[in-house]
Amino acid sequence: MTRDFPYYHGDPVGIGPRRWSSMLLSMVAGYLALLLLPATSLDWQLLARWLFVACPVAALSWATQGRASALRASVAWSGLRTLVV
Question: Does the residue 5 lie in any domain?
Fold first, then answer.
């Protein structure tokens, strides 16, 4: 069997409507953090950027019942071609 994308591997992750909604809301929350947190110091800027990334990743981890670690899986050279094309 050939190597497939981490969230599939012949066993797709089922995500229900409630979990999809939470993922979409987390993206909105991350975007709002980026827009609304004051950029008065480097600490606030870093916090806003961290929340922009962390909110959706945390929701994805919850929605996929802990399979978010697959995002950090290594990509083979043949997979890079697929990602680019």
Answer: no
